[in-house]
Design goal:
Length: 265
Amino acid sequence: MPAPETPARFLVTGLPRSGTNLILHTLAFHPEVLAYNELFNPDRILWGSSAMDEEADPAYLALRAAHPLVFIEHVLSPGPPQCKTVGFKLFYMQASEVESKNYRLVWPWLRRMEGLKVVDVVRRNKLKQIFSWFLATETQVWVREGGSRPQPPHSIALPFDVVDGYFHWYEDMERLRARQLEGMDVLALDYETLAADFAPHMARIQEHLGVPVLPLAPAIRKQRTAHISEVLTNYRELRDRFVQTPYIKYFEMAEENAGCRGAAA
């Protein structure tokens, strides 16, 4: 019996609340794609569904910690016969030497992996990204499936120092992004454009991965439908304090376009 054909491999890269879930959850509905979730979450392995998380062998966590390259090779090994490409989500700061000395070779090894395709997504409006992160953390609602109803508006306040710190952190992450993705075969997208005009950009993603282009609908929806100025209770205070900084652009961006009411991060 011939050995199963080795599937093509891919990564979905980005930062939390940038649109990686939207891409990954939608790709999971493609019959020729095997899309795992956040395999290098520092606390646990997120395989892609609660059922998979519950059924997974706990030995995988030990394998990831001790032999991360072996772990990745095992995960990316041939799956079901119809599977033509297999991949997972990886944030820029994950699988780094900062987390574990055993991880120091992960990104260099991925950069050398022959044929690896990368779908990279960034969110232009960092203020909305910060709000989305804190909203998900507080409500523990990380994704909203396509058929579910919107959640009632949930308001929160964000301290100035926290928002300012995240704005600076995103600048650090942009520099890290350039280093991590250097030399890789990257399809670069931004969340705002993807969410506003989903179908053609999902077609581009499928073409980049080398699978038949199917009319995939967004698998998850936006957490909130209210404008950020209505649910970030100290929006005006923050805007006034950032008005003389480069970060005022994120407030102006939000005010120019309520935007992206269809799909979700």
